[in-house]
Amino acid sequence: MSVKRPFLGLFVTPAVLIAAGFVLAVGAVLQYAVLAHIPGELEPGGFSLMHFRDMLKPLYAGVFFDTVRMCLTVSVLALLAAYPLALALVRVRNAYLKSAILIISVTPLFLGEVIRTYAWIIVLGNRGFVNASLMALGVIDRPMELMFTRTGVVIALVHVTLPVVVIMLAAAISHIDRDLERAAAALGAKPLRAFLTVTLPLSMPGIVAGLTTGFAWTFSAFATPQLIGGGRVNMLSNLVYSLGFASFNFPFAAALSVAGLVLTGVSLAGFRLLLRPLNRVGLR
Amino acid sequence: MTAIAFRMLVAALLGFVLLPAVVACTAAFDSRAIIAFPPEAFSLRWFVRALNYEDFRIGFANSLFVAVIASTLSVVIGSGVAYAIDRYSFRGKVLLESLLLAPLAIPHFTIGLGALIVAAQIGQSRGWPVVVLTHVVLVLPFVLRSLYVSLRNIDPRLELAALSLGARPGRVILTVTLPALAPGLAGGWLFAAILSFNEFTASLFVTAQRTQTLPVAMYNYVREYADPSMAAISALYILLTTLVLVIANRFLGLGRILGTEDARH
User: Which CATH class is domain B57-258?
Assistant: First the structure.
């Protein structure tokens, strides 16, 4: 047997250790979630389900609701903005233009959340780019409130999520057989009709992947809601961090993380279920 | 008509993507100590300040250290296990693969929290190992994806030919498989290094003052100060990242690494 699988142990053991480390970390979160918090102590107490009772209070339940609403809004908007970019990326014939679109759309992915969020602070601030431009043009007399608002956080999060959705969609669109569109055109369909009846349905797997990834990325975002929301727009990630590092209540932070995992799991499963009929359209 | 409208839409969306980067780069050259538009007088003082700021210098060195170690470890560990998963069947293979890819689906703040708790339990919460290992866990899925694509593109007949000519399995892996895998290894390493260099949320949980990475230092700066030093460092960052991506696109084919191009076409 060992002859057919040379170096199996050597190849697999380091990865098994990394996987074990990951299991330990997630296990620690699961374990802390069911331990009591003793105020003023760093060490958790005994078994308790108090955190799961506490998180039903309106203050915390509201954050759950806001987080899911934010994830849905951002993933849908990111999908709408990403689709034309992905389509252009795959279909543009000029090689330089193609590279330019690719690099512009994916560079933000490699800039990290902090820099992108900071840049949006300069765009959205009271003396920032948007307000200064609109005031100079005479469209508004007083700065619009964009920082520390839901709208501001949504705009920045769409920008943060966009690149990965473009990648998902472009991968799906690049797999579509172009002969099908040519056939539609040859049979007399105008470009818009060919797009709506051929390309769009065939790219459904990419749309589903883009929506679910956008949802998960938004859920995971921390710096954007923290800095642009400025405490007035709170997502679950911000609550977990402040419970851990401001109140040293690590068990409650862990319990909220577990509830978050369950929530994303359930939302994404629901998402797929809802989108399943759409997915079938693509397979037909 | 539709074509023109589509082009304008794409141009507008590219403008939306570029807007914050352009605005940040412009703000970096303003001489005033606040962020306000439009810039008044041209100055390079914020670049000087950003490059001399102690926390940014230490953070940069720390990030470089963590990114190089974590991405190298990920490529070494990843190439072994990707080969084993692709070519062999063994007990627990599906479980191992799902565990290695699972960090993609779990928020970084949850992984960071877990890593912090485990590190505290074994008395390692202020050290480098927890930072590096957390980064390995987070970037390994991306390395694996990049390697699977390369492994599947290798013509299996090359390996069979070497075997039938009498080469031992170890020699086949070293002289046939590994060289054929080189572009995938390079792409995976670069991808992992960039992601690790930029990782923020999990790092915020597991780093201490001494092990603070650049994104954490930048986050702390934004919370405390409002001057354009941060715009200056963003401008440098944007320039450097764009250069790396343009070069990677030229030599490795970014579209292939990211999977936005179908290799068959």
Answer: mainly alpha
